[in-house]
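Issue 218. Parser rejects a valid record. Input:
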Amino acid sequence: MGPLNTDSASVAPRRSVKQVLMSYFYWTYPRGNFHYDVMVTLILLFIFITPHLWNYGDKASSSAGLLHPIELTGDGSHGMIITVQAADVNVPAGATDSVVKKALRQAILPVTGDAVVVERWITITDSQGNVIWKIWAHR
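Output the parser choked on:
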């Protein structure tokens, strides 16, 4: 092992933490450099870890899905009439109007999206004897 080079011209000057952070922010390092690898690793960690730490407000689709199709028609103004099979709506017996309204809104959510207000509803029976919810809603 040879003597250490003590020539001051060959030694790179030490950079301050601020300079290093600014060079990270402006992405000044070439590929294959240690600092480049650090930046890429931090980005990948952000992408894969943050969904577990923060609630982004996204919702998973319903697990089972609907058993029957939903029919959606306009009511002539800014509202809509949605027809849903009773089997697709989870309404407990003897439920209050607010519980029914919430269950109906939940049932039509895959078709209408979040920004829908349920105004009124009725139950009817179709020609095959199936109970159907007829729901009037608007955005």
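Fixed in the parser; the record now loads. Residues 71-138 form one domain.
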